[in-house]
From TrEMBL:
Annotated protein name in UniProt: Uncharacterized protein
A GO molecular-function annotation: DNA helicase activity
InterPro entries (alphabetical): DinG/Rad3-like
One GO BP annotation of this record: establishment of sister chromatid cohesion
GO cellular component terms, semicolon-separated: nucleus
Source superkingdom: Eukaryota
Originating species: Eutreptiella gymnastica
Length: 156
């Protein structure tokens, strides 16, 4: 990644979100990292200010990365090969064009296994609580809470 810019912890379909509260360490270090992501080009992201109507401590200033290729350019230049492995990445052409916009199509090899689990072996359920009644709230701020992780483990 570029010096002074944060590496995204995770990428949403076409955006990575950063806010000062997301980084670990001192407040000054958090501010430095946040200012680092602001060095991205204007067209690569947006700065969002979210104001809470009654609690000023819950106001948020965020940088949303709209162009993930910013971080993949360095990887593709330095690497001999890049393998993207995952579940549903359809349409693949959109993923490739977002992450590798300057890569010629002749250099892209695609391999797909199709659906490897028989349909009869799948069940989709929607649950809002675990076996002991703990609310499943997998937002960024709650996903690392031990009680949420343990409750998810109990369910599985």
């Amino acid at each position: 990644h570029r010096p002074g810019a944060c590496k995204p912890a995770s990428l949403a379909p076409s955006a990575a979100e950063y806010s000062v509260q997301d980084f670990h360490g001192t407040q000054l270090y958090s501010l430095e990292r946040f200012l680092g992501v602001l060095t991205n080009l204007d067209q690569d992201g947006r700065v969002l200010l979210t104001r809470h109507p009654t609690d000023r401590t819950r106001n948020r200033l965020q940088f949303v990365l709209m162009n993930p290729s910013v971080y993949f350019n360095d990887i593709t230049r330095a690497a001999r090969s890049v393998v993207l492995a995952g579940g549903t990445m359809q349409p693949v052409s959109a993923v490739v064009s977002e992450l590798f916009p300057d890569l010629p199509a002749a250099k892209v090899d695609l391999f797909s296994c199709g659906h490897i689990v028989p349909k009869g072996n799948l069940t989709a359920l929607c649950l809002d609580r675990g076996p002991s009644g703990t609310l499943f709230d997998f937002t960024f701020s709650n996903r690392s809470r031990p009680e949420v992780i343990l409750e998810c483990g109990r369910l599985v």
